[in-house]
# Entry
Amino acid sequence: MNAPCALVIAPHPDDEVLGAGGTIARLAGDGWRVVVVVVCSDLPPTYPAGIAEEVEAEAREAHALLGVAVSEFLHLPSVELSRGAVTTLNGPLQALVEEHRPTLALIPFPDRHVDHRTVFDASMVVTRPVGAGRDLRTVAMYETVSETFWNAPGAEPTFTPSWHVDITETVRTKIDAFRCFASQLQPDPGPRSVRALESLAGFRGSQVGLSSAESFQVVRSVSPVGPVMGG
# Structure
């Protein structure tokens, strides 16, 4: 029997670890085939030469720790994504859905970052329950610390978790994976600090009686029998 596939769509390298690193490690440990697609790269002239290659190397190291089976990088320009043609993003993402036929998709919440909103829109298109998208049993949005929390209350959508994954056994793996991003890691009290990630995992866990959790807002879930993850 083929292993179930989970597709994680990340606007930038590190978003997948911040939002779903513990869940990715748990899925991989449970025999899932996890595919991570990273959409944007920090390309010149907006960013200094060499930054994109540095962060991609960090991401590949983090993915190896988490047990990611396939790492795809689309190399579209950060902060310029919304200016491009829709097909530039939707086409490659659709091809990955058709190639890997995931049963679970984790996508970014449409928060303050323009790239996150653009990738969310594309993710909603390619995960529609038509064609290869009919294989998807669960589609859920993850929160990205330092971006999701900065939406304006009442004027923009607010992240409201409706699904919590126990990452008590994998939270340390998540932290170790984020430590791979030396270029992104911040000292305390930065939102991308180790303490911030540990605190969020503890807080989300406390909401549902767990030691540590990652929380998601479910877009849709079709699970009449069996676990919500769709395996």
